[in-house]
Amino acid sequence: MRLGVKLLLVAVALTAAGVMIGFYVSNLTTLAGSPSYALPVQDASSGHPVVNLQIETVAAVGPELSRNPDWVSYLVRDNGQWKRKTVWDLPAHATVHVTIYNFDGASGLRNPFLARPQGMVGNRILVDGKPTDAIDPNDASHTFAVPALGLILAIPGVPDDAKNPCGYAPCSVAKYDHRTIKFTFHTTTPGHFRWQCFVPCAAGWLDGFGGPMQTIGYMDGFLNVRA
Ligand SMILES: [Cu+2]
User: Fold this and answer.
1) Taking Cα atoms as reference points, which of 142, 122, 140 lies closest to residue 131?
2) So what's the pLDDT on residue 147?
């Protein structure tokens, strides 16, 4: 083959690879992102706003809420409806009462240190009503962590032999087997804080950390703490 033809083939192959990488990046960028949800203030009489944050974690987000129905996800209760919104607007210096309903099974923690809840009031959580200051790292399904606020907790999973697991979200608390986690934390000064899951829960992805684990709107989001 003549040198000119070889060079032309290399140029064509490089261009094609470049275009494909471009499509891949643009697809990921389009997928990532989430509308924000502003939590309504329940009570401001003490001078410190009080808000309730209700979230659910699901094994599969379902076709109603995503074009990736099999992706694991967080959802937030917005006006009584479960929505795939992972950017939450919170008032500064607020008391945030959090309830997490987990419908997913366990994947286990890579780092057992994260099994010890930290950064919330009392450094403990209620698991199905029981005060808990450490869970078995193997039982972790997801974590809710806001590293900049020093807040982290691991969420225990639904047992493998659960009789009534939820297939596709949205998952009804009244209908399906779940774990209930409650805790309270305080926001500080205004800021933009990342939150994320640290359990390698993205089944089918490299080391469980791809897809929904690296895409805002599923296992990652932000707290917008506003003055
Ligand atoms: Cu997760």
Assistant:
1) 122
2) 96
pLDDT at residue 97 in the model: 98
Q: Give the distance (Å) from ligand 1 centre to CA of residue 130.
A: 22
Report the separation in Å between the CA atom of 115 and the middle of ligand 1, taken as the mean of its atom positions. Answer: 14
What's the pLDDT tens digit per position in 59-118?
999 999 999 999 999 999 999 999 999 999 999 999 999 999 999 999 999 999 999 999
Span from the CA of 108 to the centroid of ligand 1 (angstroms):
10
CA of 15 to the centre of ligand 1 (A): 37
Residues in the chain with pLDDT < 50? Answer: none
Question: Which residues hold their Cβ within 5 A of ligand 1, which is an ion?
Answer: 142, 197, 199, 201, 219
- Which helix (H) or strand (E) covers residue 41, if one does? strand 41-43
For residue 72, the CA-to-ligand 1 centroid distance in Å is 7
Contact between 103 and 58 under an 8 Å Cβ cutoff? The reply is yes
- How many domains are there within the chain? 2
Measured in angstroms, how far is the CA atom of residue 5 from the centroid of ligand 1? 50
Ligand 1 center from residue 206 Cα (angstroms) = 14
Q: Same domain, yes or no, for 41 and 144?
A: yes
Q: What is the pTM of this model?
A: 0.88
Q: For residue 5, give every residue at least 6 positions away whose Cβ sits within 8 Å of its Cβ, in sequence order, or none.
A: none
Identify the domain containing residue 27 by its residue range. 1-31
CATH of the domain at 137: 2.60.40.420
Assess whether 131 and 117 both reside in one domain.
yes
| One domain, residues 114 and 152 | yes
Residue 124 burial (CB count, 10 A): 17
What was the pLDDT predicted at 25? 78
Q: What is the per-residue pLDDT for 30?
A: 72
